[in-house]
Design brief:
Elements lengths: L4 H8 L15 H15 L6 H11 L4 H13 L3 H14 L1 H4 L3 H10 L3 H12 L6 H23 L11 E2 L10 E6 L5 E7 L5 E9 L2 E2 L3 E2 L10 E6 L5 E6 L9 E8 L2 E2 L3 E2 L10 E6 L5 E6 L9 E6 L10 E2 L10 E6 L5 E6 L9 E6 L10 E2 L13 E3 L5 E6 L9 E6 L9 E10 L9 E6 L4 E7 L5 E7 L3 E6 L7 E6 L8 E3 L2 E3 L7 E3 L17 H13 L4 E6 L7 H21 L7 E5 L12 H7 L2 E7 L1
Parallel strand pairs: 23-29, 23-30, 32-33
Antiparallel strand pairs: 1-22, 2-3, 3-4, 4-5, 4-6, 7-8, 8-9, 9-10, 9-11, 12-13, 13-14, 14-15, 16-17, 17-18, 18-19, 20-21, 21-22, 23-26, 24-25, 24-27, 27-28, 31-34, 32-34
Length: about 625
Amino acid sequence: MKFCFLYITCLLAAELPAQTYHPANRSRFIREEYNKAMQYLNDGYVKDAIPVLQKVLEKDSTFLDAWLSMAGVYGELKNYPLAIQYYEKVKNADSVYFLPYNLPYSINLAGLGRFNDAANAIDAFLAIPDLNERSRKSGLYRQQCYAFAIQYAKEHPMNNVTAFAPKNLGDSVNSPQSEYYPTLTIDDSLLIFTRRGDGVSENFYQSVMRNKKFSKAELVKGDINIEPYKGAITVSANGDWLIFAGNFKNGFGNFDLYISYWTPQGWSEPENLGPNVNSEYWDSSPALSPDNHILYFSSNRPGGYGGRDLYQCIRQPNGQWGPATNMGPAINSAGDDAYPYIHADNQTFYYTSDGLPGYGGTDLFIMRKDSTGHWGKPKNAGYPINTIENEGSITINSLGTTGYFASDRSDSRGGLDLYSFTISPHIKPLKTLFVKGAVLDAVTQKGIPCSIELIDNHSGKPAMQIKVDELGKYFVPLPVGRNYTFIVNRKGYLLYSELFNMQQHHADSTYQKNISLQPITKNAGFTFKNIQFNINSYELLPQDAIELNKVIDFLNDNPSVAIEVQGYTDNTGKETDNITLSTLRAKAVANYLAIHGIDYRRLSYKGYGSANPIADNTTEAGRMKNRRTTFIITGM
């Protein structure tokens, strides 16, 4: 929580001992100069107060209130070492008079990560007899924060090893105005952010990464900056969408979420995302999953668990967003939960909260998907990423090595600036690779708009849903070290299913994968890629359900289609045995389809043994390909 000097002064006024060092007891010159410094502070000109206070202290070095004021100024400027130095000068001069100032002193100690010293200082503050209610409440809050910090350091000793040294992005990105809400495209080539304009206006700027440096920021092109009242922003993985918060005349409430599309002329006129997403309350802080399938955001609408809660909307097959649902009490707190961000791996989620245990104010939290695809428990990112200040939005490059955030650090060009920092191992997302391509009609070679479902072959559960654009093109990030099945089920086309082995592929690499869909015609065939029977067995395995359920979807989408399930073996063993085994395997598949609702009159099956090989039976690799299960279209 940010404590300004004047607030601390007011808070402690009732706790002061005899006013021996009060300005009223100083000379007229000292009183006038000191009051001038206080006026600067009251008007927000914090730095201007420093030379005035220095002049006061040159004339009267025993004026402890002036030393305390100087400490408060440097604390406000986040120059914690100097603030501590000034506080300790007063503490050494008169420890009794200093007692109430142990509160701001402790905050500055904590600002340097000296949490044990801060805890001792706050204990001394809380030991003051007859503290007023507001002072005691503030002290107890800080005591709780320092206790958390000390315990976290004990439980996570390695998390504090990595040096946290944020770097200002420099004059090409930052300006005398405030910059905030950074967002990156998935290839890390484009940085888009918000810059404060004149008055209350906010504009979107962009900077292009060239030779590992960001270019001079410029206004994004198009109609998106016409409306002045806007702020939090997120860019889609492929750079074609911008979703942001705006307070426009056509909105439903305070702030709504809008979308703008990239066109040859620039960004399109913003469109309200509608009542499924927005409410008559505050809706902001958007974050888009890398597959464009889920929109996360923060809202203070009724029915939540605190002030601002995190919500999500799922994109429907028709391209519209489904109704917003609260992400639940395991994620949302009794406080404010905001600034969600999901990494390109689609597995690692970051957000801020002031309602979960932390260091004070809003802290950054991280959670990851478990093996079932559900979000795990949020964990505090720890010091020095989290501090006594309010932490804000974050974005991370696709490699998971560099993060970007806004801060008003001492080297700011003015207000908030954008900074980069090295991601610590304990909050690092999964390494990703990229797959791009197009879904094409096998006959016309024209692109087909559709959805691609990716199944994680290890868990057997859906990992991602990719919406292909109107030209049939797609681009998707995937965590490395896993194998996936790509499944496309488009009405009017034969089911497509193919295993994509990516366990050996390297991170930060792009792979091309075009998908050809065969129009439904009689005798068109489909080969199962994931159905692998055990030797001499015709029992289906649990993982076989992945493709079989997609065949059920295919048949339900095309109710006039009839199929023959066909079983094949390699040429080893007796052919009569091969015919029997392949027939039983084909029958097992047909039975599965029938049990799950497909009319048996649309199904037939047959075993072909080693007939019609598709590969050389003299090699094991060839024989493996020949041991297959397929189906062909027999009726339409």
